[in-house]
Amino acid sequence: MSKVKITLVKSPIDKTKRQKNTLTALGFRKMNQTVEHEANPQIHGMIRVVQHLVQVENA
Fold first, then answer.
1. How far is CA 35 from CA 13, 24, 53, in A?
2. CATH fold of 3-58
């Protein structure tokens, strides 16, 4: 499968608990951190929840 690179570009401060939990589940701990995941429907659903906070690119 292909991989996807996700970078946290906006702060999760003042966001809902669901969005914060989604970022934690994706593996983010701090700003401007980049994580790499397999591109599957579960990851794409998680990205959709926090799409206004992250930047996504295909790896």
1. 19, 11, 14
2. Ribosomal Protein L30; Chain: A, (3.30.1390)
3-state secondary structure of 54: strand
Condensed to tens digits (0 to 9), the pLDDT of residues 25-58 reads 999 999 999 999 999 999 999 999 999 999 999 9
Would you list the domain boundaries of the chain?
3-58
Tell me the two tokens of residue 46.
């998680």
User: What's the predicted TM-score (pTM) here?
Assistant: 0.93
Work out the burial of residue 29: count CB atoms within 10 Å of its CB; fewer than 13 is exposed, 13-18 middle, 19 or more buried: exposed
Residues 6+ apart with CB under 8 A from 42: none
